[in-house]
Amino acid sequence: MASGGDSKYIYRGKDVSPNLEVKVNVVDDAGNVDDTYSNAAKTVEDASKLDPKIAELHKKLDSLADEHLLPQFREIDPNLEAVYTGSFKTGTVGNPNKPTYGQPINLDNYDIDYWIKSDKLYEMYGNSLKANPEFRNILGETPGFEGLKPNKQGFSIKFLPSGN
Amino acid sequence: MKENSYGAKIKLTIEFEGNMKELCDVISKSLSIPEFWFDTISEPPYETIGYCETFGFEIDIQKDSVMADSYIFSAVTTDTFKEINEDRMHNLSIWFSSYFKLVSKLKIRISD
Question: Which residues, listed in sequence order, are joined to residue A92 by a DSSP beta bridge?
């Protein structure tokens, strides 16, 4: 959850305030419009729209993954980047092929798509979704994650190349 | 103890003219395993993949990106990250393709 106050913005325990410069509708000589935001600014903007319940689940998941899931992979690649995606990240179903597209996440029946970005791990494990029954059990015992779908349907890991 | 632990993997190509759901039904029945569930990957082009978890294996079915009317059947023992990392994975593809052909009558070959 992002929090504002003076000029500091804290998101998931990190101070993201130094990069808050926003570039909006910059038009170049050829007339092309660049409406990109700096990453940090977009992160804060997204976080400010997030349901506080989901933001709280993010915090719990980050902490549990740091303790129970990621150490085995950090042994192989200490520089890996772990993120989650899909409706659990944004709070809204963003896949246009799903009948629930555009609707808010249903916290009584949802899944977590967990991505680990690392060239080394991607080469080793490929890009198919992987289950992790041990970590799924840990989530199952953690208040707030009762609505996760069972097994791999509820929690899956996907390895991606770095910088993807 | 974990140093003596081995996982296993299978990768096959199945020629099948029906859709993925129909193929997964044939597989479930012939191998006597649970029904597949389906999901689209969360990034474009949002392809559909069929999943089944049984007997400690994770099975994925997806459309072959090169050959028409072909699907890739992939099975790997679950939670064997360490075994994969340390090259302790048995390849069961040859044995499994023979058994799978016998029970399913599908056109199956070993994937490259």
Answer: A104
